[in-house]
Amino acid sequence: MELLRAGKEYLKTILLLEQNSDAVRSLDVARALHVTKPSVSKAMKRLREGGYLTMDAAKWINLTEVGREIAEQATEKHRVLTSCLLSMGIDPIVAERDACALEHAISSEALEQMQRFIDRKGGVS
């Protein structure tokens, strides 16, 4: 199953919620993404079927190894892009929004060059 942009956003959100809490439920994801519980339920079903996460009997969400890897990669892309945009003087709100859009389209080569730019400039990390 090819993971679409929305699926990656769900995985990133779950990873972030895990870092701030002992456990994650669908309601936590719905609140974080400002979407409805039925939307999250549909997404969780697709992500479970794709092998990106599991849910136990109590409905706690756990990322699989593959799901965690994708979430971590997407989170790192977002971090690099945001840092690069901020180091160029872009407004933080705009930088955050644009990084979110760019992370789904940027090549690995461009991302590596941006990281080198940040490292040379001593940008925000």
From the structure provided, what is the oligomeric state, counting identical versus distinct chains? single chain
Instruction: Report the β-strand fraction as a percent range.
Output: under 5%
What is the N-to-C succession of helices and strands? HHHEEHHH
> What's the CATH architecture name of the largest domain?
Orthogonal Bundle
CATH class placement of the largest domain: Mainly Alpha
Overview of the molecule:
The protein has 125 residues and is mainly alpha-helical. The protein has two domains: 5-63, Arc Repressor Mutant, subunit A (Orthogonal Bundle); 72-121, Iron dependent repressor, metal binding and dimerisation domain (Diphtheria Toxin Repressor, domain 2, Orthogonal Bundle). It has six helices and two strands; from the N terminus they run H-H-H-E-E-H-H-H. A two-stranded antiparallel ribbon has the order 1-2. Helix 1 (5-20) crosses helix 2 (26-33) and helix 2 crosses helix 3. The longest helix has 23 residues, at 65-87. The protein is elongated and about 50 Å long. The model has no long low-confidence stretch (mean pLDDT 90).
Overview features:
single chain; 125 residues; mainly alpha; Arc Repressor Mutant, subunit A; Diphtheria Toxin Repressor, domain 2; 2 domains; two-stranded antiparallel sheet; 6 helices; elongated
Q: Layout of helices and strands, plus pairs?
A:
Layout: H1 5-20, H2 26-33, H3 37-49, E1 53-55, E2 61-63, H4 65-87, H5 92-102, H6 108-121
Antiparallel strand pairs: 1-2
Helix pairs in contact: 1-2, 1-4, 2-3, 4-5, 4-6
Describe what is shown at a glance.
This protein has helices at about 5-20, 25-35, 35-50, 65-85, 90-100, 110-120; strands at about 55, 60-65. The protein has about 120 residues and is mainly α.
